[in-house]
Amino acid sequence: MEVPPSFSRIDLTQEKVEVLRLPHPSDGKLANFLLTSAGRLFEVNSFERSGYNRGSIFVGDETLVRDPHVLLGTEVAPVMVLLPYLASQKGNQDRFVTFTDVILGASTEYSDCRDAFKHMVTLCRDGLEKQLACVCETKAVSKDVEEKVYRFSLDRLAAWLAVIVRKTSEQAISSGLYFTEVGECATEDLRRERLSRFMFVLPFCDGRC
């Protein structure tokens, strides 16, 4: 099952990065994403502390930034961008369609960001085809042809998201991430339970910018 890495870094000496406006998987509204030349997609989330909850962060070893506005890129599977389109095809969800049909349909639906969407598909095509099978039922066109056809499935989508949450939670726990809501004296079971609830919202995070 194709699952995006839980924690990722972009090496700017190896990958070029550009900002694209693409549909957000939670509601289809345009949001900022980073697309690398290697075909990796990152959702851009904005975090800003205000009021009495302000603070500072270290940038590197010597720079202290007061009341920072932090932009965080979270790697997501490119197929996430297709979810608003797939979910909107209620009248056609009984039909199996080709990968090309899915992309052409989404390109038509995403008229306000068509060029950005096509560019993402060009760089992410291989991953998109593999990931589409994670959220769709598939079947072969014929025994002699390798091409598959796809039909969107909410059950497969839910199962795939559950795997992402579980793997991300496991990696976060093993990395020793600290959550102030839990506290240093919390038991391992409590940390795991709180972290699992926190991670469940990540696939459709609304800290977008």
UniProtKB/TrEMBL annotation:
Keywords: Nucleus. One of its GO terms (cellular component) is ribonuclease H2 complex. InterPro entries: RNase_H2_suB, RNase_H2_suB_wHTH, Rnh202_N. GO terms for biological process: RNA catabolic process. This is Ribonuclease H2 subunit B. Residues 81-171 form the Ribonuclease H2 subunit B wHTH domain. It comes from the Eukaryota. It holds the Pfam family Ydr279_N.
